[in-house]
Amino acid sequence: MDERTRRALTDIVGEENYTESLIDMVSYSYDASEHSHRPSCGIWPRSAEQVAEILKLANREKVPVIPRGAGTGLSGMAVPVRGGIVLDLSRMNRIVKISIEDRLAVVQPGVVYADLEKVLAAKGFFFPPDPASGKASTLGGNVATNAGGLKGAKYGTTRDYVLALQVVLPDGRIMKTGSRAMKSVSGYDLTRLFVGSEGTLGLVTEITLKISPRPEATSTALATFDDLEDAGHALTEVMHSGIIPSALEILGRETIRAINQNTDLDLPEVDAMILVETDGYTHGETDYQMQKVLDVFNLNNPREVKRAENQKEASGLWEARKSAYGVLARIKTHFVLEDVTVPMSRIADLLKGIDSIARRHDIQIATFGHAGDGNLHPQILYDGYDPEQVKKMEAASGELFKLAIDLDGTLTGEHGIGLAKAPYMTLEHDETEMAVMRGIKRFFDPNNILNPGKMALEG
Ligand SMILES: Cc1cc2nc3c(=O)[nH]c(=O)nc-3n(C[C@H](O)[C@H](O)[C@H](O)COP(=O)(O)OP(=O)(O)OC[C@H]3O[C@@H](n4cnc5c(N)ncnc54)[C@H](O)[C@@H]3O)c2cc1C
């Protein structure tokens, strides 16, 4: 960073909240994806007013600004691909207010998901999106990526809970969107526009979230299927059986095999394993729902159906699903974790298509994911030091995206576009839609300073 800009920035936040140290620059150069690029400096702002001053300066000097939460993104969204200033929001981490009466929480963006959950749990409430990265990822990051998770089928994603935002625009103006009322149709829904915008339109400095009473009772079961078609039918039938499970997860054969090779869980090596959880405010309620699910499983030729009798058994059943990402991440030197999403009725086609792509390109793809909302995670495992394997991975990724679109689905259900999926945006969005998205970006950020180079917004 040049001396003049550096001085202007430290005047705003103080020397103690500014860094150019090598270790910080390396840390800020990557997220949880395969992408990396070093910034010029990092800043820890403490207030919306400081953020506004930084953005005014950056806009004047045309320096890129990259908002950053915990850096757990899987698509290179927080990678400073054009250098510039990383605005690390992790020190704006105050829970401003929890109002049970109004059923809402007001938080700064650097609050970690699990920290809010802990406070809400003590009051008998929860914030449902539940991303698997919840122990580390920030609510600002969750809002900017519209994070989802295990409970998506029943409870939706972050977007469904954001009532209001405070946002700093690239020119430094501070804007409030939405309201603290449970519903509002007042003007354009700018709140929703910012949710999932990956830090390309404005910097979120305060979030008002709707919270829900926590259902304390749960039931858990597992079913295994020798045939993908049977598993696919079971999934769709569960979802129109009149109840909605709080979690409906699937593990494919490759994932099961990898778990067996790397743990002592000794799972049956079937085409598909489905895990299901129902929740409610009484055990009678969860039992009723679970019985419906078990009836559906039993009508679709399962090899085995097992219901947990207590919490210990339930945790045992979840162990395989929870170990999937970690086990698969260790198998090869590199991996990409995709999150293609299709309508429920196309899940079996997606699973079969993934197997066929893996065979054609002679590459290992292990799949697991949130079957309840059609969101699967094919994890492509490869040796990143072998150019041949890299080529195979790229070809397989491209085909995977095309497959999802052909099945009326989407490139990404929760991990976002960032850098990783930017080249594929036009597969899903036609010329007109791309032109509107690029127009929105230009309207908010005419100098293209905010998280530039992402989401194919510059075409
Ligand atoms: C093991 C693992 C499991 C995961 N599981 C899930 C999952 O179940 N569901 C899911 O949805 N994702 C999951 N993810 C991905 C990731 O955790 C989410 O995308 C998460 O929401 C990112 O939060 P973060 O704080 O790390 O944001 P970062 O990675 O730091 O940033 C993500 C994006 O948000 C922008 N941003 C961050 N803060 C702000 C702000 N205050 N204002 C404006 N823009 C901002 C950044 O510029 C960037 O574009 C997982 C990742 C890992 C590594």
Structural commentary:
The structure is a single chain. This protein has 459 residues and is α+β, with helices and mostly antiparallel strands. The protein folds into three domains: 3-90, 2-Layer Sandwich (Uridine Diphospho-n-acetylenolpyruvylglucosamine Reductase, domain 2), CATH 3.30.43.10; 92-213, Uridine Diphospho-n-acetylenolpyruvylglucosamine Reductase, domain 3; 217-406, FAD-linked oxidases, C-terminal domain (Vanillyl-alcohol Oxidase, Chain A, domain 3, 3-Layer(aba) Sandwich), CATH 3.40.462.10. It has helices at residues 3-13, 22-27, 48-61, 113-122, 139-145, 152-155, 190-194, 228-239, 253-262, 283-298, 311-329, 347-361, 387-406, 425-428, 431-444; strands at residues 18-19, 41-43, 65-68, 85-88, 95-99, 104-107, 125-126, 162-168, 174-178, 203-210, 212-213, 217-225, 247-252, 272-280, 302-307, 334-337, 364-370, 375-382. The strands form four sheets. The chain has a seven-stranded antiparallel sheet, sandwiched between helices. A five-stranded antiparallel sheet has the order 5-6-10-8-9. Helix 8 (228-239) packs antiparallel against helix 12 (347-361) and helix 9 packs across helix 11. It starts with a helix and ends in a 15-residue tail after the last helix. The model has no long low-confidence stretch (mean pLDDT 96). Flavin-adenine dinucleotide is lined by residues 31-32, 66-74, 77-78, 89, 109, 131-133, 137-138, 140-142, 144-145, 147-149, 198-199, 203-204, 325, 414-415, 451.
